[in-house]
């Protein structure tokens, strides 16, 4: 199997982020963003996607967590695109339904080269530890745009913000693991256009 890894760094006046990613890992993660709940979510994402992930992020947390979370999504998206390479042989589509107690989230991913996010979950006024609930959508949008993904997120049930968010991140990891998996029966890319 070819090496499907990436290392990406991005520094702005608001954040300094370094990410390494191995798509064919075992779910090992070392994450430090300064936002405890976000660290937990990225660890879950890696574990359930079987990705090896290292994230070192420093951001202007004295303002709030927005820049750190969004910029981490940007850098992770770029790393994902780099690790996918020419996308030859990947399954392209992935779907996951994940329960977390009363919450049930569905995430569907298309590694299409066409960035799009449809996010049906309402956590706009919710605080989970030091993490603003609305940042989940910001992270997903940044990831979709920079990795060239179509992502649909649908909350089928749920009341507890922690449970809802955890179900979404786990489902995202599982859906991406399926979509990025190689299938020896696929010649070239999974598109009649010949490109993704």
Structure description:
This protein has 196 residues and is of the alpha+beta class. 34% of the residues lie in helices and 31% in strands. It is built from four helices and ten strands. It has helices at residues 36-49, 66-84, 135-147, 161-180; strands spanning 5-11, 15-22, 29-32, 52-59, 93-100, 103-110, 116-120, 127-128, 131-132, 150-157. Strands 1-2-4-3 form a four-stranded mixed β-sheet, with helices on one face. Helix 1 links the parallel strand 3 (29-32) and strand 4. The longest helix has 20 residues, at 161-180. The model has no long low-confidence stretch (mean pLDDT 96).
Task: Say how many strands there are.
Answer: 10
- The side-by-side strand order for the widest beta sheet comes to 1-2-4-3
Question: How many separate helices?
Answer: 4
Order of helices and strands: EEEHEHEEEEEHEH
Q: How far is the first residue's CA from the last residue's CA? A: 20 Å
Secondary-structure topology with pairs:
Elements: E1 5-11, E2 15-22, E3 29-32, H1 36-49, E4 52-59, H2 66-84, E5 93-100, E6 103-110, E7 116-120, E8 127-128, E9 131-132, H3 135-147, E10 150-157, H4 161-180
How would you sum up this structure in a few lines?
By secondary structure, this protein is α+β, with helices and mostly antiparallel strands.
Features:
196 residues; four-stranded mixed β-sheet; alpha+beta
